Amino acid sequence: MIRKNLFALLALLIFFAVAIEACTKDDTSTTITPVLITPDQPTTTSNPVSNSITNDTALLGQALFWDPILSGGHDVACATCHHPTNAYTDGLELSLGANAVGYGQNRRFLLPNDVTFTKRNAPTILNTAFNGMNASGNYVPLTAPMFWDSRTQSLENQVTNPLMTFEEMRGHAYGEAVTLDSLVARLTKIAEYQQLFQNAFGSSKAITAVNISKAISAFERTLIAMNSPYDRYQKGDKTALTEQQIQGMALFKDEGCPICHSGPMFSDYKLHVMSVPDNDKLIHSDEGAGGTYAFRTPSLRNVGLTAPYMHNGVFQTLKQVMKFYDDIGEPISQNPHVSVQQLDAKIQRIALGNPEQEQLISFLNALTDPGFDRTIPVRVPSGLNPGGNIR
Question: Structure pTM?
Fold first, then answer.
């Protein structure tokens, strides 16, 4: 294992090497802030043996994450729907991908338009490096569940799905079957990407679909936010939480929230049938995993920054989420497509008065760490607008 001080020294050297190289290029060069992997992360990520994070892979992944060259119409990037300004979400109930312009609440479809809203709410990618973590803090990155319906395992496998989905990034440019080959062909024509891929993977022929996934996954694993007031309190700083938050923490436990929101990530990463109401922006009811109306428990970390809530963004505030759990009742289904018999056996009513609700919400907000990486690159290798058509 590399010693921390040596690793920090190497990271610093890489930073200066990149800076010096940038100064020697002409004004047409791309400016991308290096993503340095610091040895003092609050929590250490585990990476697949097949995809070890280096500064070169993370730097390449950052460029790809922001570059709309990966979308069919050159108009959508990963960052379009996962933007640091909104804690790597877009702040929308359902995202607008292809054939849209603007950012967040101002985003709209261009006309004429035949593209629909994306099917589900864009979850934050902060801490997705830890997906699948159990109550003991253990997880296996290659089997980490991804998406609201857990249909894919590992960040590497997750990456290509949005690229191939019509309403997310593909649009009308090409068919789903040729998406990845088309993107490889595009990137191969850009000299700067040729160099970045060679730096990251050590080959002049490194631009492949597999390496695109590896690079973006490597970058996403650097997006860590694990130094919330709650974390500092657990590490011994008893001033990190207010009295109201401490009371809310007790309510969180007493009301049975940890039955599903357990472990360091406040999620069991399992599928549960909750009867969340449908979003009326969708033409068809979202049937969830395998048509069962089951959806994966989201992490509660940074929940104060990632509204709206649930798999379809149907609740705008945590107060509305509290009402949903109050209305569950004995239990009572809140979706006409879900029978009471289908509801998860672990579901529990949370019936709290307004002062207690405020305490619980205050505790949930104490799970927020605002100190995550908010870097927005000035340019990307394609020369397109970083983040796509969001201006």
Answer: 0.89
pLDDT tops 70 at residue 110: yes
Q: Residue 34 pLDDT > 80, yes or no?
A: no
Note the pLDDT tens digit of each residue in 75-90.
999 999 999 999 999 9
Average pLDDT over residues 116-138: 95
Question: Which residue, among 296, 391, 378, has the nearest Cα to 67 in the 3D structure?
Answer: 378
pLDDT at 43: 54
Total residue count of the chain as it appears in this document: 391
CA distance linking residue 160 with residue 363, whole number of Å? 36
What 3 state SS string does the chain have?
Answer: CCCHHHHHHHHHHHHHHHHHHHHHCCCCCCCCCCCCCCCCCCCCCCCCCCCCCCHHHHHHHHHHHHCHHHCCCCCECHHHHCEHHHCCECCCCCCCCCCEECCHHHCEECCCCCCCCCCCCCCCCCCHHHCCCCCCCCCCHHHCEECCCCCEECHHHHHHHHHHCHHHHHCCCCCHHHHHHHHHHHHHCCHHHHHHHHHHHCCCCCCCHHHHHHHHHHHHCCCCCCCCHHHHHHCCCCCCCCHHHHHHHHHHHHCCHHHCCCCCCCCCCCEEECCCCCCCCCCCCCCCHHHCCEEECCCCCCHHHCCCECCCCCECCHHHHHHHHHHCCCCCCCCCCCCHHHCCCCCCCCCCCHHHHHHHHHHHHCCCCCCCCCCCCCCCCCCCCCCECCC
Query: The tokens of 13 are what?
Result: 């050297």
Span 148-170, average pLDDT: 97
